[in-house]
Request: fold
Amino acid sequence: MNLRHFFAIAAACVAIGTAHAKEAAPLADDPVAEKRLLEISAELRCLVCQNESLAGSRADLANDLRREIRDMIHAGKSDAEIMEFLVARYGDFVSYRPPVKPITWLLWGGPFLLLFISIGLLINFLRKRTHTVTSTELSAQEQQRAQQLIDELPSSKKSDPTP
Amino acid sequence: MIAELGHFALILAFLVALTQGTLPLIGVHRKHAQWIAMARPAAQAQFLLLAIAFGCLANAFINNDFSVSYVANHSNTHLPTMYRFAAVWGGHEGSLLLWILMAAGWGMAVASFSRQLPDEMVARVLAVLGLVAIGLIAFVLLTSNPFERMIPAAEEGRDLNPLLQDPGLVFHPPMLYMGYVGFSVAFAFAIAALLAGRLDAAWARWSRPWTTAAWIFMTLGIALGSWWAYYELGWGGWWFWDPVENASFLPWLVGTALIHSLAVTEKRGAFKNWTVLLAIAAFSLSLLGTFLVRSGVLTSVHAFAADPSRGVFILILLAIVVGSSLALFAWRAPSVAAGGSFAMISRETFLLMNNVILVVATGSVLLGTLYPLIIDALGAGKLSVGPPYFNAVFVPVMIPLLFLMALGPIARWKEANLREMAARLRVAAILAVLAGIALPLLMGSWHFMTALGCLLAVWIAAAVVFQTRDRLRTGNPPPSYWGMQLAHMGIAIFVIGVTMVGTYEEEKDVRMAPGDTVAIGNYTFRLIGVSEKSGPNYLASVGEVELLYKGKHEKLLHPEKRQYLSSTMPMTEAAIDTGLTRDLYVSLGEPLDKTADGKPDFTGAWAVRVYYKPFVDWIWGGCLLMALGGLLAVIDRRYRIGRVAKAPSSAMKVAA
Reply:
């Protein structure tokens, strides 16, 4: 077998191989739209599931809704428009990101309010605390008395072995 | 007959709890040595009786006694024996029985491992545990009796929820419950100390190992749950901010704060009131978690048991626990001394900041978890509070904590020198900045939050390494020191995992016929074929997928799609190739082609989902290190030294 034959066979093998193992097609034809779909649907609740996102769910309704969103993406709608449409249809419940409106002000502001109040309390506490620290310094007389007490200790106590 | 025996043991356990909750307390008050001495045997008897009750229920499951309605509802003759046993806690009644058994186990442990503690203290602690047990056992007996008979008996049981038929069920709930109820010990110590009017360093030292032990179980339980969700639910996520997840995360956060606050109380005698409050909060949040999960106010993947009357019972129990302990606190707290003094910049301050941040984080998660319930209860509409919210509020709150984690351990007690600390952390800071710039670029793309994640992780890790090296110069540190550094290292590793998988994970949803390939990075998946297999109680479609790395064979993966006989919902069993720097994850979807007679065509194309998840295992690895760190802290010998050893241990503190 000469080299040419070998190459011909090898090429044929490769051709067969590639023909057989073709790159799998994405379920959707447009990967960019698919990525957007994934991002949008991760923030949406699958309404028939028990707290599962639309991105994670395999329920029929979730499949339908994903298809619908995909269509909207192809129709050139923006993410915000799609969100708005779904919230209008299903209510705030469908979105995992609560809207900012009077009824959720406490929800969105609460953690930061809590943080600022806590920091305020902390600083106040530390101030007071350092204040007491300075006032608890021993007077000269107390110092003398303390020294006296230490001196009175039996020497055996000082060399108490550490277990 | 055996079920009745179990029921009887449960009633006896209730009576023993009544004794355990009252007599020792009166004994301490009136100085009756014999009544005080009742506490230990009562705790042991209670554990024994509950173990008998649990054994009876397990027996009913293993022998398929479908005349017990709980068994008939959660098991089935086709269920493998391992799951028949685990099914004991696969539903509401049984999980509560496991819960109170574990609570009694903690009580038994306190009774056995507290020989060096004063008898009055032990009596008080066990009595408080007894009081808690009264409430919990009454809950089981009155609203959730697992031994209830069903006459006539069922021919065959319903099945265990297929989602639960997994080794995860065997380990995750027991671990988590151990953590939940473990905080009752910290709570009992705090209440006992309040009752005694003795909130001192000794109290803190006694409760530290118990608190840490509960925290270890909690950490492992949450990590196991997260890992279970990751491989079982088929979407490859590790945390969804599900209300039930939050219910376990809340006591963990407060427990973490408590561990740090206890350190200050033990070593410096400060923050005593605060520590007591945290101990009360940790246990109250455990109860709140029970309420959320068991009352059915939530709809989530975990809500496999729901009944409003139970919710009301737990709510009342929660109100009694919180109300009475806060009342006791208000009565006793003003008389507590302030403890050792410290300067503005000191380890005390850093630990206090840690506490403030953790409490704010807890408050935020609690707010987000309860908000939709409150809005709904007020009739103001339905709202979903999900991952986008929690990521938006939780992450910014935690960032300063991660930054401070490197500073706390090198700050001196009483007064720290910022300049000296800065000098010691200079190299760590440089490494952290370099990592923030370089690591994201090495991974392929640079984003601000990713860079920040890398920076903070390396900042903590480098600080741990340098501090440990410096510490080793002055001799071998005690295990608790290693424990602290190991746990902090665990956080660093966890942060790397979260950051990397959050930014660089890739997902592909493809249509694959046998022979087709799909590539992610250097990896290629090739579907060889799909075949049918029948399990003990399900039919499965098993895919055979070859994983190739740069074109070379790496491994065969077998993702499954199972149809349980008892359920209409198909279950996915993802196949995962686990690696140190990445996981490759395949889950099999629906068959896309049909044969002429309308049945799914096994030789046709399938929907397949593949994921590339860089560093995802670091998330659970980090948790494991945290738990291991906790373990080292618990075994530190100084907790087992008797009453006499107070002075030397304070000498050790200076060294640490």
Observations:
- The helical segments of chain A are 3-20, 31-42, 60-74, 79-90, 105-135, 140-152, 155-158.
- Residues 38 and 55 of chain A are 6 Å apart (CA to CA).
- Chain A touches chain B through 53 residues (CB under 8 Å).
